[in-house]
Specification:
- The protein is mainly alpha-helical and 316 residues long.
- It contains ten helices and no strands.
- Helix 1 runs antiparallel to helix 7 (233-242), helix 5 (151-192) runs parallel beside helix 8 and helix 5 (151-192) runs antiparallel to helix 9.
- The longest helix is centred in the middle third of the chain and has 42 residues, at 151-192.
- The protein is globular, with a radius of gyration of 24 Å.
Length: 316
Amino acid sequence: MHGLLNAVYGTLFTWGVTALGSACVLVVPGKRRDVLDISLGFSGGVMLAASYWSLLNPALELAEQQGWGKGSCIPVTLGLVLGAGFVLLADVLLPDTVTLMSDEVGARKKCESEEQECSGKSSTSHDTARHGTLRHRKPDQTPNEEESTDPNQDKTVEAKLRAVQLRRLVLLIVAITVHNFPEGLAVGVGYASVGRPGVDLQQAHNLALGIGLQNFPEGLAVSVPLKAAGFSTINSFFWGQASGMVEPIAGIIGVICVALVEQILSIALSFAAGAMIWVVCNDIVPEASSYNHTRLCSIGIIVGFVVMMCLDTALA
């Protein structure tokens, strides 16, 4: 019973730190493409570092302890491939979710554009009264060049681009959430193992503390890209902290099913690593590089990788 309560308290702490990282979105500027791209790069760096130091390396050590020896890469490889396949399957099944999220962001951007249009109309009508009818053209369009852009076509292209962007952001949330589940399992197993040879309560506390501190940049890595993509601050914070909500649930499962979880934990950890690596390579990097902000994306990746690497190694 004490192990269950301790696991609940420990995983509530790790969830709380995730929420604290997500709360940084309250002070970070958003709704700018450069902010989105560098924050996506930061997210990718955090996920790549966490994939090795938080997931793959512990998974290999666990598999070796379970008797796999030199073949410890077998269950880890299985988990990694399954994790990547899981995200690929999620990508196929996401259209309805992405449509709903795209409508929300589209409506917000439409309101903003209407406000700008109203202010623009007032100045345009003033100029028209003085100089006659004005003809609008693009900055790089010559006076003799005819306007050929179809507004309906532009809106269709913009809607498709927004849907692709939001699909990638949803997969980012999925990957971070999947990554947090085995960490919650690990905390639960840690508290359930107190009293066994070589395992005491302080070690379980240290494990929860280490995982909790690692969750801070992960909460930030979810909420900031969402805000920069056009989500409201409240919704960005909500989805950021929600990515850590699975940890208390996983912690309880870890305590109750400790014997089973110990056997599959190496696969669960590598499963999460596979999901994160797939999302970084297939979604985050292409999205962050799609607006010629490759250098910003690369800077974000390096910063995120270093931050997570330092946290993982210092708190190992």
